[in-house]
Amino acid sequence: MLRYRFHQPKFSAELLRLNRPVKYISLIFFIYFLGWGIALPYFSLYLKEKLGTFSSVGLIFSALHVFALVWALLLGPALDRINKKTLISGILFLYTPLSPIFLALTSLWQFVAFRVYHSCIATGLWLTGVPRSIAAEP
């Protein structure tokens, strides 16, 4: 009879050696991407119910990426000069009202304005948090 041995993943020891702020940032990004991974499949259905047309759904989906590109070009150089820990805390504070605002939207232009706001804070989080967590890897 064959016996299979299950080993612990090799990265577990590396995770234990990381300093506490990097662990917190990694946990925050895990929750962030997990939340969007859970919500994104239903996002288009919700938008279709609220807005009615597939072209509006496509516009809202693409708006985040278009505005994120613009924000990255505008904010990128400025974000390098700001304290990253304070900036990430501020951006996460701005993420707090995101769900209640999103649930209150009813028209296409409200969704577009929401995507401008969301793309600004998402771009700030992506540009500051992801490089910070990657740079601290052992």
How would you describe this structure to a colleague?
This protein is mainly alpha-helical. The protein has 6 helices and no strands. The protein has helices at residues 11-17, 20-51, 54-79, 84-95, 98-104, 108-135. The longest helix has 32 residues, at 20-51. The termini are far apart. The mean pLDDT is 79.
Mean pLDDT: 79
What general form does the structure show?
globular
What would you call the structural class? mainly alpha
How much strand content do the residues show? under 5%
Can you count the helices? Answer: 6
Helicity level: over 70%
Low-confidence stretches: none
Structure keywords:
138 residues; globular; mainly alpha; single chain
